[in-house]
Design goal:
Chain lengths: 125, 493
C-alpha cells in the first residue's frame, strides 16, 4: 500500500475517535461540544476525501481547456457536506445557548456539579 | 394541480408556516394559525393514504428532476401510515395545546413555541415522505434541533440539562447516520432509497457496507431510544412542557422506528441482514431487555411523567421485537404498534398535562383522590392505561396479539411468554396511579380544583376514544399494517 493511499481515512478515524472520546469523557459542557465538533468535522473530511478522484479535475466544461481530460472528481459530496456543515453550526449554536442558560440556572457548567445539584433537588421533593 | 403536488405540500405547508407564525406574534393568533396548518396537513396525509390504498405508491420528483439524480418524495403504504400517525397526533395535540401552553410557557415566547412546533412537525413529516437518504438526514436534524428547543422550554430547570443531553446523544446519532450514508454512497454512488435497494446486494458483502449497516443501525437506535441507548429519553420526557412530551412520545420515536424499518427492509431489503448478519437476534435480545428493564424501572418512579417515559422505552421494545422477527405477522405487529402506542401514550401524557394544569405536579402523591376531583381526566387515564397493558377491546391488545402470534409462528414460545409477563409489569405501574386516584383520599389541605378545560378534554378523549375504537374495530389499521408488511417483505418495492 503506497503511503498516501488511505492516509485521509486514517486521519478521519483518529479525529472521529478523539472527538467521540472527548464527548464521553469530559465533564465540562463546553469541552463536550468542542469534542462533538471534532467528531462532526471528521465526517466532513471523510465526505470530501471520498469524492477526490486521482488525476481528476473539477467537473466544469470549459471549451478548449478541458480537452484530453477524462477523469472528473465528484462534486456531489462537497455539496452534501455544505449542508452538513450548516447543520453542525446550528447544533453548536443551540448547544452553546443551552449552556448559557444552564449556567444561569445552576451557576456551573461542570457536569458533576450539575448532577449533584439535581440529586439534591430530587431529595427535596 | 393541488392534488398532484400533495406530497410536497405535506412538508412545505408546516415548514413555511413556521416563519409566518413568528410574524403573527400574538399568542392566540399563532395558536389558531398553527391549529389550521396542522389540521390541513392531517387532511393531506389522509388524502395521500387513500390515494396510495387505491392506486399504489406515489412518486414525486422535486423540481422535475428525475430520480435517482433529483430528490424523490415517495409515498407508499408505510410512509403514508406514518404520515397519518404524525399529523393526526400533531393536530389533536394542537387542540390540547392552547391552555396547556398558556400556563407553562411565558406569554412572550408562545408564538416562538408554536413556530418551533411547526418546524418539528414538518421535519417529522419530511422523514416519513422522502425517498432520499441525505434529504432524510436534513429532515432528521430539522425535527431534532426544534425538539431540543421545545424540551428546553420546560418550567423545571432540569429541562435544560435534559435538552442538552438529548442534543449530544441526538447529534451523535445523526452523525452516525450520515457516516453510514457516506459509506453506502462510496460503494453505490447513489443516495436514492429505491436505487440503493437495487444496487446494494451486489456489494453487500464488503466491509464498507457492513460498517455502513452498523453505523446506520446504531445511529438510528440512539434516536429511537432502543435499550441501552435510551438514557436521554426519561429526562427529556419528564421535564419538557406537557404538550411537547405528549407530541414527542407519540411521534418522534415512531418516526425513528420508521427510518430503521426503511434501512433494514428497503435499503437492505435484498440482503439477508436479519438472519444472515444476525441483526435480528441482536434486536430481539435488546427488545426483550428493554421490555423488562424499563418496565421494572417505571414501577419505582415517583414522578409519573418519568414513569410513562420509561414505559415508552419498554413499548419501543415491543415495536422492535415485532420488527426483529422479520416475518409478515411480526412486522405487521410492530407497525400497528406504532399507531397503537402513539394514540395510547399521547392520551396518557395528555392526562399528565391536565393534572399539571390543575394540580401543578405529577408526583404520585399529587394524584391522591384525583379520581373524584377530576373524574373525566382520570377515567381517560384508566382506559388508556388498560390499552397500555393490552386488555382486549383496546388497541394495545391488537398489537400484543400479533406479536405473540408472530413469536408462536416462529416457534419461539418463550418470547410469547415474555410478552405476556412484561405486560404484567405494566399492570403494576398503571395500578399505582389508579390506586392513588380512586382508593386514597385527597390530602386534607388539598386545594379545591375543577376539571380540565373542555378543549383539553376533547383532545384527550379523541385519543382515548381512538385507542378503544381501533381496538374494537381494527380492520382498517390492520389492513394497512399487514399491507405495509407484505410490501416490505414480499413485494420489495
Amino acid at each position: 500500500m503506497e503511503f498516501p493511499g488511505l492516509f485521509n481515512y486514517w486521519i478521519v478515524i483518529v479525529l472521529m475517535m478523539t472527538g467521540f472520546y472527548i464527548v464521553m469523557a469530559h465533564g465540562n459542557l463546553i469541552k463536550k461540544i468542542v469534542g462533538l465538533n471534532v467528531f462532526q468535522v471528521s465526517v466532513f473530511v471523510f465526505y470530501i476525501s471520498m469524492s477526490k478522484v486521482k488525476g481528476g479535475t473539477a467537473p466544469i466544461l470549459r471549451p478548449g481547456l478541458d480537452e484530453g481530460v477524462e477523469v472528473y472528481a465528484n462534486p456531489l459530496p462537497h455539496v452534501l457536506i455544505l449542508t452538513a456543515i450548516v447543520v453542525a453550526v446550528a447544533t453548536t449554536a443551540l448547544a452553546l445557548s443551552l449552556i448559557v442558560r444552564i449556567r444561569e440556572e445552576y451557576g456551573s457548567i461542570e457536569e458533576d456539579e450539575i448532577i449533584a445539584q439535581e440529586n439534591n433537588q430530587e431529595e427535596d421533593q | 394541480m393541488i392534488a398532484a403536488n400533495l406530497p410536497i405540500l405535506q412538508v412545505i405547508a408546516p415548514l413555511l408556516s413556521a416563519p409566518l407564525c413568528v410574524l403573527l406574534r400574538r399568542p392566540g393568533a399563532a395558536w389558531a394559525f398553527a391549529l389550521a396548518v396542522t389540521w390541513a396537513s392531517f387532511a393531506i396525509a389522509l388524502t395521500l393514504l387513500s390515494q396510495v390504498l387505491e392506486s399504489g405508491p406515489i412518486s414525486y420528483e422535486i423540481g422535475g428532476w428525475a430520480a435517482p439524480f433529483g430528490i424523490e418524495y415517495r409515498v407508499d403504504m408505510i410512509s403514508a401510515f406514518v404520515l397519518v400517525i404524525v399529523s393526526a397526533i400533531g393536530s389533536a395535540i394542537m387542540l390540547f395545546a392552547r391552555h396547556s401552553v398558556a400556563s407553562e410557557i411565558r406569554r412572550e415566547r408562545i408564538y416562538l413555541f408554536y413556530a418551533m412546533y411547526l418546524l418539528c412537525l414538518s421535519g417529522l413529516l419530511g422523514i416519513a415522505i422522502t425517498g432520499d437518504t441525505f434529504n432524510l438526514f436534513v429532515f432528521l436534524e430539522i425535527s431534532s434541533l426544534s425538539s431540543y428547543v421545545l424540551i428546553s422550554l420546560g418550567q423545571d430547570k432540569r429541562a435544560l440539562t435534559a435538552a442538552f443531553r438529548y442534543l449530544v446523544m441526538g447529534a451523535i446519532g445523526a452523525t452516525f447516520y450520515i457516516i453510514g450514508v457516506g459509506l453506502m454512497y462510496m460503494m453505490t454512488g447513489t443516495l436514492n432509497i429505491a436505487d440503493l435497494a437495487v444496487r446494494l446486494p451486489a456489494v453487500a458483502s464488503t466491509t464498507t457496507i457492513l460498517a455502513a449497516l452498523a453505523f446506520l443501525t446504531v445511529g438510528i437506535s440512539l434516536k429511537l431510544a432502543l435499550f441501552p441507548l435510551h438514557a436521554w429519553l426519561p429526562g427529556a420526557y419528564a421535564y419538557a412542557p406537557s404538550m411537547v412530551t405528549a407530541f414527542m412520545a407519540a411521534t418522534a420515536t415512531k418516526v425513528a422506528v420508521y427510518i430503521l424499518i426503511r434501512i433494514l427492509f428497503t435499503i437492505f431489503g435484498g440482503v439477508d441482514v436479519m438472519a444472515g448478519m444476525h441483526v435480528g437476534v441482536i434486536l430481539t435480545g435488546l427488545a426483550v431487555i428493554a421490555m423488562f428493564a424499563a418496565s421494572t424501572t417505571a414501577i419505582f418512579q415517583p414522578n409519573l411523567k418519568r414513569m410513562l417515559a420509561y414505559s415508552s422505552v419498554a413499548q419501543i421494545g415491543y415495536i422492535i421485537l415485532g420488527i426483529s422477527f422479520a416475518s409478515e405477522t411480526g412486522l405487521a405487529g410492530g407497525i400497528i404498534h406504532l399507531f397503537n402506542h402513539a394514540v395510547t401514550k399521547s392520551a396518557l401524557f395528555m392526562v399528565m398535562g391536565c393534572v399539571v394544569l390543575r394540580v401543578g405536579s405529577v408526583n404520585i402523591r399529587a394524584f391522591d383522590g384525583l379520581g373524584a376531583r377530576m373524574p373525566l381526566t382520570m377515567a381517560a387515564f384508566v382506559i388508556a392505561g388498560l390499552s397500555l397493558i393490552g386488555i382486549p377491546l383496546t388497541v394495545g391488545f391488537i398489537s400484543k396479539w400479533y406479536l405473540i402470534l408472530a413469536a408462536l409462528e416462529k416457534g419461539w414460545w418463550p418470547i410469547a411468554v415474555v410478552v405476556v409477563l412484561s405486560s404484567l409489569l405494566a399492570v403494576i405501574y398503571v395500578w399505582r396511579v389508579v390506586e392513588a386516584a380512586y382508593f386514597r383520599p385527597a390530602a386534607a389541605d388539598a386545594p379545591e380544583i375543577s376539571e380540565a378545560p373542555a378543549s383539553m378534554l376533547i383532545a384527550l378523549w379523541l385519543m382515548t376514544g381512538a385507542s378503544v375504537y381501533f381496538g374494537v374495530d381494527a380492520t382498517r389499521t390492520l389492513d394497512v399494517a399487514l399491507g405495509a408488511a407484505k410490501l416490505l417483505l414480499v413485494d420489495r418495492i
